Amino acid sequence: MSVLALLLAGPLQAWGASARFARRTTEHAPTKSGVIGLLAAAQGRERTADLADLAGLRFGVRVDQPGTRIRDYQTAKHFDTGKSMPVSERFYLADAVFVAAVEGDDTLIDDLHRAVQAPVYLPYLGRRSCPPARRVDIGVHRDQSLEQVLADQEWRAAGWYQRSRKRESTVPLTTFVDATPGDSRNDSVRDLPLSFDPLHRRYALRGVRTDTVDVPNPKARRSAPPDHNPTILLGGD
């Protein structure tokens, strides 16, 4: 088994698990259906293509920088009649950074890795208006579990955000990982994609386990002062 790690960072992101009609909300972190959609698009799959192999991957995400939730609204007119459509709300995460990972068969993970390096359709972070600001691919990991990869990745938050927490030498980061049969505490969300067919999109429930991992803060203030005494140059006793 292998794990493909992805960096999801951009000015805006939107990950809706239950967003419908005129109110399009976003979750606090990337959804499995959103990331599977990104990977399927990178491979060039059509929306009506079979997703069974991608849906079978284990999925997890780490919140490196939670961002700020913002609200926008949109107006539109009907293409044929010219009548005004209902005003719709759009919610986004601004300045958020996440590390996502999928775990599965070596061959499929290698195919996905090649796809994100040279995608057929450009990746976007939940909505087409949300392009990534950094390189999405951060590598394939062999002989490591999904949880290990999320715990071992360096902290990917922006430098200004790391400096804002300079009093902490390590920071706890929240993770959301596909629950396993042995997990007694997990939440269920309708976020397992079965079909992206625009005429009949279908999603099933999946269990999600919430946890935290501690990672070093490279911008942490040093605990001991530097070994430097400028008054020594003045001489004297």
From TrEMBL:
<keyword id="KW-0051">Antiviral defense</keyword>
<dbReference type="Pfam" id="PF09704">
    <property type="entry name" value="Cas_Cas5d"/>
</dbReference>
<keyword id="KW-0732">Signal</keyword>
<dbReference type="InterPro" id="IPR013422">
    <property type="entry name" value="CRISPR-assoc_prot_Cas5_N"/>
</dbReference>
<dbReference type="GO" id="GO:0003723">
    <property type="term" value="F:RNA binding"/>
</dbReference>
<dbReference type="GO" id="GO:0051607">
    <property type="term" value="P:defense response to virus"/>
</dbReference>
<protein>
    <submittedName>
        <fullName>CRISPR system Cascade subunit CasD</fullName>
    </submittedName>
</protein>
<dbReference type="InterPro" id="IPR021124">
    <property type="entry name" value="CRISPR-assoc_prot_Cas5"/>
</dbReference>
<feature type="signal peptide">
    <location>
        <begin position="1"/>
        <end position="16"/>
    </location>
</feature>
<dbReference type="GO" id="GO:0043571">
    <property type="term" value="P:maintenance of CRISPR repeat elements"/>
</dbReference>
<feature type="region of interest" description="Disordered">
    <location>
        <begin position="210"/>
        <end position="237"/>
    </location>
</feature>
<dbReference type="InterPro" id="IPR010147">
    <property type="entry name" value="CRISPR-assoc_prot_CasD"/>
</dbReference>
